[in-house]
Amino acid sequence: MKDRAVSGAREISVAFLRGVNVGGHRRLRMADLVQWLGAAGLSRVQTYIQSGNVVVEHAATLDVAPRIHEVIAEMTGWDVPVVVRGADELRAVVAANPFPDAAPTHLHVAFLPSAPEDAPHDLVNHAPWRPEEFRVIGRDVYLFVPPGIGHSVMVPRLSLLRAATTRNWNTVLAVVELARDASCRGAAMDEGGGD
Question: Would you say 16 and 83 are in contact if contact means Cβ atoms under 8 Å apart?
Fold first, then answer.
């Protein structure tokens, strides 16, 4: 097995891009993004669907969000917010789901760049939005929206979501699986002496 201390510790992370390929705006081909990120030193770059979900392997010391932001800005001129979660953090997001009985189409996770410092007023009084609910756990906001996110009364009124990028539960589960597969492939390559 390759000595990670010698070769440099590597990690798998998932980057969520905010506002690309939505409603015909900021059209970004995922194949181009994979190429750009690979050229910028990230490895095992994979995307999931066209909404800006990117699995990457990187040096453990690299601050991934600013690096991806910088690459996109260089290549497109766009200021695209990027929120990153490590593979372990994403597995914890799934494990912490406060709405385990929700249908996947009714559950979304809004990924914040940082945990909210104080609970804004909209976190305190959310009874008027029933049956819609939300829970903040660390840097993540779980959104239970039975009418669907496009018909939600609650979501447009949650001020803490302004800096978030939101994914439906099926996408969250899919990128967790992609990150797991990337970790397994990386471990197998390390054991086989490849990189």
Answer: yes
At residue 189, φ and ψ (nearest 5 deg) are: -70, -40
| pTM exceeds cut of 0.70 | yes
Strand order in the sheet with 10-17: 43-48, 53-59, 10-17, 82-86
Give the amino acid at 120: P
Among 18-22, 23-27, 47-51, 167-171, where is mean pLDDT lowest?
23-27
Rounded-to-integer distance, Cα 101 and Cα 177, Å: 20
Q: Which residues contact 11 (CB under 8 A, 6 or more apart)?
A: 57, 58, 59, 60, 86, 87
> How crowded is the C-beta side of 123, counted as CA atoms within 13 Å?
13
Q: How far apart are CA 29 and CA 183, in angstroms?
A: 25
